[in-house]
């Protein structure tokens, strides 16, 4: 029994449960942007596409982080020996099977919604694998990682294809944000670079400002402002601390804060496009994500 429990915990550690909730928040924000919620529903089955896209993102994100550990297995023996694969808790073969299964679930769930959603899911998988294998070791790696998040937001918007065509550009916001977080994360082990941290602060400011402008354009600034403020606090507090002391632990906290703050960012998106109750529903994922982050690694 203890073997089954430890193995299950190993698999859970591989998929990073706290991060999965931030991916679901991306989908829910995309759905808010799409206007899908303003349709008339006759039964709960009309909301089945929402559930399918949430399942899709769980599979796609889970598969992406599992393969990240698969490709990093040799390096993690030195830098992070406590992780499931280098510790021997989960074999590399078992991790490959898990990651492949998660990707398959994600892609199939997306195709049940539409072909457009399915092809976006395939693009997310491809982008994640490119990052895991090659991107993280290159100068364009942060943008590659950001692309995964930008496509994930578009996956949510894909419920309404005409809106997707109109708002394709909006993917640039999470791309910019995650590119900044990923650039910071490169100093997580041996310490960071002040210049990188300052550049990240500028990118963060552009993201806050763009969401605020969208809220003004939609006449929802008052509703969105508290969520934008929370987003700013969650990202800036650890970032400022890292600027004062760019040590590995402080960089790690800045990265962790940036990832978990995605829920607040997505709630801000929702508040800028739809009702306050829906934005608050997304925000409920934040305490759950913070709780899971205490038990499972985020980075």
UniProtKB/TrEMBL annotation:
Keywords linked to the UniProt accession: Cell membrane, Membrane, Transferase, Transmembrane, Transmembrane helix
Subcellular location: Membrane
One Pfam family from the record: UbiA
Organism lineage string: Bacteria, Pseudomonadati, Bacteroidota, Chitinophagia, Chitinophagales
The keyword Nucleotidyltransferase appears for this protein: no
Molecular function GO labels: transferase activity, transferring alkyl or aryl (other than methyl) groups
One GO CC annotation: membrane
CDD domains for this protein: PT_UbiA_1
InterPro entries linked: Prenyltransferase_related, UbiA_prenyltransferase, UbiA_sf
Species this protein is from: Chitinophaga japonensis
Name of protein: 4-hydroxybenzoate polyprenyltransferase
Keyword Hydrolase belongs to the record: no
Membrane topology: Multi-pass membrane protein
Transmembrane segments: 20-38, 45-67, 101-131, 167-185, 197-217, 223-242, 278-297
